[in-house]
Amino acid sequence: MRTIKLIVAYDGTAYAGWQVQAGDRTVQEALEAALAKVTGEPIRVTASGRTDAGVHALGQVVGFRTASRLPPEVLRRALNAELPRDVAVLEAGEAAEGFHATRHARRKRYRYLIDNGPVRDVFCRRYCWHFPAPLDAAAMHRAAQCLVGRHDFSSFQTSGSPRKTSVRTIYEIAVRRGEGPTSGRITIEVEADGFLYNMVRTIVGSLVGIGRGARPEAWLAQVLAAADRRVAGPTAPPQGLFLVEVEYAPKEEPPGSA
Known about the structure:
It is a single chain. This protein folds into two domains: 2-103, Pseudouridine synthase I, catalytic domain, N-terminal subdomain (Alpha-Beta Plaits), CATH 3.30.70; 108-244, Pseudouridine synthase I, catalytic domain, C-terminal subdomain (Alpha-Beta Plaits, 2-Layer Sandwich), CATH 3.30.70.660. It is globular, with a radius of gyration of 19 Å. The longest helix is centred in the N-terminal third of the chain and has 13 residues, at 27-39. The chain has five helices and ten strands, in the order βαββαβββαβββααβ. The protein is an alpha+beta fold. Helix content is 21%, strand content 29%. It has helices at residues 27-39, 72-82, 137-144, 199-211, 219-226; strands spanning 2-10, 46-47, 56-66, 87-94, 105-115, 129-130, 149-152, 167-177, 185-192, 241-248. The two termini are 18 Å apart. Strands 1, 2, 3, 4, 5, 6, 7, 8, 9 and 10 form a ten-stranded mixed sheet that branches.
């Protein structure tokens, strides 16, 4: 048996999230159906983490074991021929014995996009949160820096996915407004060792409160210290969120892996 690692991109608009759910269309289900056709095996895949309904991925990491001897590049092409057009395998490679896409992930980076123009961009409606009121991206960035470091992020967690601990480490968080033709676009990027359920979307919803002037910059530190979801801002809608990339320790990636 071989362990294969995939890098997968998907548009989450038409899916009820990553994880298989009875009666709902999911990305995991689509990928496992394609694998069954290509390999002739019933394969269950493991991802770096679950994404919710409407959330997208630019670099979801997926692992599975198979008896198939298809070379990784042939496997990638065959899967893309079977997958729906809103899911694509970007890379495929051999992974180390025992590789686990969830347990061995060390860092993840998420990106959230806000369409901050007075008139919505109809071509970005599936990939941005349209917020027409002016936002101060610089104030949002300054406020967000209090989240960098190891903290209890209970205030930014919604119920739905139990965790052993709500302590996480954010390595970087940045809020930037585009320039020129993209000046109406605000990008929020967060990199951490892990994320709680709806953590990024709740951070974004809280930052928007600061950006529109409803809250002072110092408020976000108070929210963090409270460890109480009720004091944070609303959860931002899912369509603006992208899983960008997942980082693994070098020992989990043998030479020639994806």
